[in-house]
Amino acid sequence: DAKKLVRSPSGLRMVPEHRAARSPFGLDEPPWVPDKECPRCMQCDTKFDFITRKHHCRRCGKCFCDKCCSKKVPLPRMCFVDPVRQCAECALVSQKETEFYDKQLKVLMNGATFFVTLGTSDKSELMVCRLSNNQRYLVLDGDSHYEIEIIQISTVQILTEGFTPGGGNTRAVGMILQYKVPGSDEVMQMKFTAGEDFSCNKKLSAAWLAAMHKVSK
What we know:
It is a single chain. The chain is an alpha+beta fold. The protein has helices at 88-110, 202-216; strands at residues 3-8, 11-16, 55-56, 63-64, 71-73, 84-86, 112-118, 124-131, 137-141, 145-149, 153-161, 171-180, 187-193. The chain has two domains: 3-102, Zinc/RING finger domain, C3HC4 (zinc finger) (Herpes Virus-1); 111-216, Roll (PH-domain like), CATH 2.30.29. α1 (88-110) crosses α2.
């Protein structure tokens, strides 16, 4: 999908040319609290003057002094090219999201192989499952081909095994996915199972499932 570079009061952003191509994980820039409505820092209540300047958090749009809004943190959900100024609370959230973008989304886009069962069928098909580059679709390729829009997914249930009474670790071995069919109220179900009898990387499958669990949150 084509992208364009745009400038806003908050900084430079690389966004899709067409709004319909936006990632479902994206956020809109917040409106800034007007300067005239913000005589004091909205965190520590310090009064703004010629020495104590006000700054707007790029994530929440509120006014803060430099001490309370000094961190510059990547904000991929708003497509900023460079790290941007954020208040302490927003910076923590953005740092966690950056890890999601840097790790989990890349795992999902690289894909993994599963046996996929559609609905109540007793037959399964070996398919490569991955997130599309624009992050809008879950793409399944085998003898059949499916594209499931992420925003239509209603339920993600991760299947695990390996639990012991002593508290042993579990591992993800599959997933049940429910999604709505566009243009109707019909709900479809797919079951994904990491195969034991073909040469796939079990760690990769488990990592893909864990990343999908993060997406559902």
